[in-house]
């Protein structure tokens, strides 16, 4: 008769088994090998059971490693992954593996050709699936091999970034998950209704599950119709909207209007669009941005006043997570000590010409997810970011578009990215995952050109970004 292994956890209900020699119940605190007509022989001192999948492991350390590799990475991505965590993904299907040998054998058995990226001497591939949320993460502890390994910092960051892009989600401080890539809709409110609705439907068909909009964009009604006709469950879609400065004192009214237009009963994320309040001139529409100016600043409504109104909407269940947009470090330091609910997100303009390294580092240190708007630069503003010679060279060498290079650069920094487009082909292209080599990341990080494409501070004469290099007289906020 072949040997069988009995594993027992420390829980009393799991430790009672029948011995074959005596036929009476015996309780063991350790795992044993059962052999006919022989006394049980202990294999190790104790075993630990994973509470989520009931896998048993020989030590607390291996249990922690297993939980991080299998469960934490699957749910939360790079932001909450442990040091050294790694998973390898197959390009042709949604399978992932903990060991290179397993990935290699899988490729031989299941696929004839797989495009694998070589990073740091190890094969790391990304999944080209239209439904990345269904990726089945696995870990293999056979032969004592654990699912995580100690790696140099740069290689570890590369692998974790590829995992983040693979599953396309990060965990917010509120506990909810936010897809790492979304569809932006700013500055396209003048597009024909059918055109933008069709674009939003195409994005949902391709696999986008994150749509960024705002009360002031006038796209919420079009997005609501696209969601309704897409046959995608509302619970699968992450919707962000924002409070325009003219509505800073009428937060609930603004949100109820957004919910009505979107055809939903809650927002996944609500942001303060700009860090100041504005008065609406008599007879003017709060939508009308031409009245945005230093003269119309409303200093009777503070940022914390708006924030507390947003916190109340979380309590009511109308909003799940709240955050800010276009806030600098000083503004965040001012808000966080007074906030009952900490900001989950700071949405800022971010691209290689405006990398904002210091602000990104501050947000990540304080568990605030950075969201990048304008990741491709201004489409019709000079200099055109995508035409930069170094970006073009990288794109040509890797066989990618300049937009794909810029999106990957952003995601690999741990930044949620929301490029916008009305072109179905570009919408699909922007959704493709790949990992930029470390040398190309360094090249983009070190570009010396500096350009803020969305310079609302100069347009409105309000010192939003507190840029000390600007000499123009701007109103303080």
- Give the number of helices: 14
What's the CATH superfamily of the largest domain, by name?
NADP-dependent oxidoreductase domain
Pick out the low-confidence regions: 1-46, 75-85, 112-167
Oligomer: single chain
**Could you give a short account of the major beta sheet?**
8 strands, parallel
How much helix is in the residues?
25-40%
User: Briefly, what CATH class of the largest domain?
Assistant: Alpha Beta
Fraction of residues in β-strands: 5-15%
* CATH domain fold name of the largest domain: TIM Barrel
The CATH architecture of the largest domain would be: Alpha-Beta Barrel
Rg for CA atoms: 26 Å
The number of strands is 21
Shape: globular
Give the N-to-C terminal Cα separation. 81 Å
Mean pLDDT: 76
By secondary-structure content and strand pairing, the structural class works out as alpha/beta
What order do the strands of the largest sheet run in, or round the barrel if closed? Answer: 14-15-16-17-18-19-20-21
Count of spatially separate domains: 3
Family: Belongs to the aldo/keto reductase family.
InterPro entries: AKR, Aldo/ket_reductase_CS, NAD(P)_OxRdtase_dom_sf, NADP_OxRdtase_dom, Znf_C2H2_sf, Znf_C2H2_type
GO molecular function: oxidoreductase activity, acting on the CH-OH group of donors, NAD or NADP as acceptor; zinc ion binding
Keywords: Metal-binding, NADP, Oxidoreductase, Zinc, Zinc-finger
């Amino acid at each position: 008769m072949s040997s069988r292994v009995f594993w027992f956890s420390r829980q009393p209900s799991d430790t009672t088994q029948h011995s074959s020699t005596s036929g009476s119940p015996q309780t063991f605190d350790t795992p044993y090998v059962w052999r006919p007509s022989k006394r049980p022989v202990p294999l190790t001192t104790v075993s630990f059971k994973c509470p989520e999948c009931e896998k048993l492991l020989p030590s607390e350390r291996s249990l922690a490693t297993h939980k991080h590799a299998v469960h934490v990475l699957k749910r939360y991505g790079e932001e909450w992954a442990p040091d050294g965590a790694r998973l390898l993904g197959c390009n042709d299907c949604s399978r992932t593996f903990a060991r290179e040998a397993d990935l290699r054998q899988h490729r031989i058995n299941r696929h004839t050709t797989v495009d694998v990226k070589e990073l740091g001497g190890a094969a790391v591939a990304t999944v080209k699936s239209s439904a990345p949320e269904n990726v089945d993460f696995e870990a293999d502890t056979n032969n004592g091999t654990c699912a995580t390994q100690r790696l140099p910092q740069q290689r570890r960051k590369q692998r974790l970034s590829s995992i983040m892009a693979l599953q396309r989600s990060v965990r917010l401080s509120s506990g909810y998950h936010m897809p790492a890539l979304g569809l932006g809709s700013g500055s396209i409110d003048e597009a024909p209704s059918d055109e933008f609705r069709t674009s939003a439907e195409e994005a949902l068909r391709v696999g986008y599950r994150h749509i960024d909009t705002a009360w002031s964009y006038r796209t919420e009604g079009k997005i609501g119709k696209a969601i309704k006709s897409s046959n995608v469950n509302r619970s699968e879609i992450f919707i962000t909207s924002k409070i325009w400065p003219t509505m800073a004192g009428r937060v609930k009214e603004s949100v109820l209007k957004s919910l009505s237009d979107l055809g939903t009963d809650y927002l996944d994320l609500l942001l303060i669009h700009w860090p100041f309040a504005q008065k609406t001139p008599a007879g003017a529409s709060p939508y009308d941005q031409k009245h945005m100016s230093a003269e119309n600043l409303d200093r009777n409504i503070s940022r914390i006043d708006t924030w507390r109104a947003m916190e109340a909407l979380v309590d009511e269940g109308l909003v799940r997570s709240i955050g800010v947009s276009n806030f600098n470090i000083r503004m965040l330091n001012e808000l966080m000590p007074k906030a009952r609910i900490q900001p989950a997100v700071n949405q800022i303009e971010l691209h290689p010409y405006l990398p904002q390294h210091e602000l990104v580092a501050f947000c990540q240190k304080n568990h605030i997810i950075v969201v990048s708007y304008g990741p491709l630069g201004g489409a019709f503003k000079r200099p055109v970011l995508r035409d930069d010679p170094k970006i073009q060279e990288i794109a040509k060498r890797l066989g990618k578009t300049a937009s794909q290079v810029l999106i990957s650069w952003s995601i690999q920094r741990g930044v949620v990215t929301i490029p916008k487009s009305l072109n179905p082909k570009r919408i699909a292209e922007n959704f493709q995952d790949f990992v930029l080599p470390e040398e190309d990341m360094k090249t983009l990080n070190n570009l010396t050109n500096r350009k803020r494409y969305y310079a609302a501070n100069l347009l409105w004469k309000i010192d939003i970004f507190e840029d000390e290099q600007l000499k123009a007289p701007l109103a303080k906020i």
